[in-house]
């Protein structure tokens, strides 16, 4: 079954489908689901301290409220560093496809980059959100982030559900592109049933026969914003126009549509040199385009009396 039925509301989703107004989720000093549309922006991958500092400064100037930065990178293919850094030997030569990082190596590299992310957030008064990959990595990450992101690949990762239900930090839950809203709300119900209600839902796009862009896996489901507001009215909803479109020239238009449809926030890849970003260079906005987007979001918010 792909659609939410009355039986689901009574028996399977009684907590997340409770009527009421949106309940804002506190992310550091920022409310998601409150009066303002929240922009979570930053690099798809934290590359260095200087990089994330420069990006944090740039997005802050344009009005972003939360710094997003990828550290753990669950890549589609196994070659190279899943944290985004090109693999090199002690002489600086690229190792290529032969070196696969162990989990211990990933954790060691990750913590160094979480330090950079935290420093940038503190320097520019921006709460930090980043994707969690391992349940046993939650205690380490908790020292550095203000919000955990569950990426679309891990929507049904019950080790993460159990571990994150015990944290004091809020959760950003992305829908997998092959899953229905019914399934997404089922995962949310698992959190609610364990007493974890500081949850934000993220529409990341759905799989379709064609995506209008040869590089894309998904198309953003604007209707999902309205549907989630109907079925789970107390839970804030954000959209990810960057990873859903995988195309820079589409990001502003889809962001505008999502905000107009009622999204409480947008999740945007930003880089000062998008074409040379280590990971996902095709969709990241530069500072100028991000500034334009923030002006447009403000204008739409005023029109819809947000």
The gist of it:
The protein has helices at residues 6-12, 49-62, 103-123, 138-142, 158-164, 181-193, 222-231, 241-245, 248-261, 287-303; strands spanning 25-27, 30-32, 38-42, 66-68, 128-131, 147-150, 171-174, 199-203, 237-239, 265-269.
Description:
The chain has 306 residues and is of the alpha/beta class. The chain has a single domain, classed as Alpha-Beta Barrel (TIM Barrel), CATH 3.20.20. The protein is built from 10 helices and 10 strands. The strands form 2 sheets. The chain has an 8-stranded parallel barrel, surrounded by 5 helices. It has a two-stranded antiparallel sheet with strand order 1-2. β5, α4 and β6 form a beta-alpha-beta unit. α7 runs parallel beside α9 and α9 packs parallel to α10. The longest helix is centred in the middle third of the chain and has 21 residues. The radius of gyration is 19 Å and the shape is globular.
List its traits.
single chain, 306 residues, alpha/beta, TIM Barrel, eight-stranded parallel barrel, 10 strands
